[in-house]
Structure formats: C-alpha cells, structure tokens
C-alpha cells in the first residue's frame, strides 16, 4: 500500500487531478451552501441565489486552484490580474452554462432545484478543469535560444 501511495504522489498529473477533484468538491460545497443560505435564509429566488453562490464559489476556486492545484506563480501584479481576468472570463462562460442548465432543468424538465443544481455542477466541474488546465493556469514555457 505504501508503494502504491508513493507512485501516486510521484505522478504529478494524477496528484493535480486528485487535488482538483478535492478542491472542486469543496467549491461545490461552497456553491451549495451559499445557494441554500441565499434561498432559505434570505428568500431570494433561484436566479439571485445561483448568482450569489456562483460568485462565492469562483473566488474560492481561484485561490485554491492557483495555490494548491496548478501551483501557479505570478511574476508580477499585472500577471496576477491577467490570470484572474482569464479565470473570470472562463467562469463567466461556465456561469452561462450553469444558469442555462438550471433554467432548463427547473422550468422545462420540472426537476427540483436541488437535483438541477447537482446535475449542473457535475458538468461544470469537468468544464472548469479543462478551462483552467488548457487556458488559465497553463505552465509557462521557458524559451531557450541559441544554446550550444
């Protein structure tokens, strides 16, 4: 068992995926908790509750993804702002998917908002990983010229 765990730890991509799933799960918890607090405590409708839950989850996800999942280092404040801007752009894209899915599941298929939220979040977690890996927290390539 110890050897198996050491193999997993040495496989950086697998560790990244495990961390993403772990923090994605926590982000989903943040999303759900914020949603149901907004809905049940403040009696907001599902659109406003979903917006509040999305903002809470995005801020949590940026911090955890940047620091622990993708271990992204910003060389400057400007680079951090660019990275955050890309993160927000792709999260807005996934928010549109999230909101559209919630609307369709609730208004068209007449599912409960809990089931709609659960189904939507499964797809959103996968989409956000791909956006983060491919477009936001890409590893920086070191350019080497004229090495002889």
UniProtKB/TrEMBL annotation:
Q: Has UniProt tagged this entry with the keyword Membrane?
A: yes
In the bilayer, the protein is annotated as:
Multi-pass membrane protein
Q: Which residues form the GtrA/DPMS transmembrane domain?
A: 20-137
Alphabetical UniProt keywords: Membrane, Transmembrane, Transmembrane helix
Q: What InterPro entries is this protein classified in?
A: GtrA_CellWall_Glycosyl, GtrA_DPMS_TM
Q: What is its main location?
A: membrane
Task: Give me the segments passing through the membrane.
Answer: 17-38, 44-68, 88-108, 114-131
Subcellular location(s) of the protein: Membrane
Task: Please give the GO cellular component terms listed in this UniProt entry.
Answer: plasma membrane
One GO biological process this protein is involved in is:
polysaccharide biosynthetic process
Q: Does the keyword Phosphoprotein apply?
A: no
Family indicated by similarity:
Belongs to the GtrA family.
What is the name of this protein?
Cell wall teichoic acid glycosylation protein GtcA family protein
